[in-house]
Write a structure and sequence with these properties.
Blueprint lengths: L8 E6 L4 E6 L25 H71 L2
Antiparallel strand pairs: 1-2
Length: about 120
Amino acid sequence: MSHCHEGSCHTGSNSHHGSHAHSCSCGCGCECGCKDCCSGKNECKHEGDFAHELLEMADEAWMCLLKDKIKQKIESLSGEHLSELADIVATSNHKRWSDKMAASDAVDDYEDKIAEFFSRHS
């Protein structure tokens, strides 16, 4: 796998094909014709390069596994504390929404009474 050092791309002449192809200015030799031949990770990427896609998938899986491990460690160190905090937040959120719904019902009831009043006195 080639690695880009500058991560910048430019359009240059592709003498092999006699046309302009997109190539990396970093010297990785990418002339795949794609718009973004260098990813933000300074790695040359080629559309349809299954081997490269597998390496990207492995990187993502590694990060997911690390995240799971971190979550497990946090749970073991702070689980009870976080459970208590979650209870406070969830209970408060439930009350807040219950109050909003009750206020909405009160507004609806008020509007119904006003509409009824005007319908009787018209």
